[in-house]
Design a protein that fits this description.
This protein is of the alpha+beta class and about 90 residues long. It has a single domain, classed as Rossmann fold (3-Layer(aba) Sandwich). The protein is about 30% helix and about 20% strand. The chain has a 3-stranded antiparallel β-sheet with strand order 1-3-2, with helices on one face. About 15% of the residues are buried.
């Protein structure tokens, strides 16, 4: 997943704002690893910390948020019905 950091950026708000009230945002990303770090040698590598993702999604008004980690990070985040999209 290619998401800018932090969620206060306009880009984050636009991407997450595409979910209307009652909508669900789904995503996945690679977890940080030495092999992935080496693969990205010479380019931008910003591994996403699952705990920070949880905070960001809740800050943007998503609830509930479910994050699972295994071979990859996966998440679902629901925009409560009646919530306005962030501007």
């Amino acid at each position: 997943m290619c998401l800018p950091r932090p969620p206060s950026t306009r880009s984050w708000r636009r991407r997450c704002g595409c979910c209307g009230p009652g909508g669900t945002l789904l995503g996945s990303d690679s977890l940080a690893s030495v092999s992935l770090h080496h693969f990205h040698a010479g380019d931008t590598y910003n591994p996403l910390d699952p705990a920070i993702l949880l905070t960001w999604l809740r800050t943007l008004g998503f609830s509930p948020v479910t994050i699972t980690t295994g071979a990859v990070l996966m998440f679902t985040a629901r925009k409560p019905a009646g919530e306005d999209s962030p501007s």
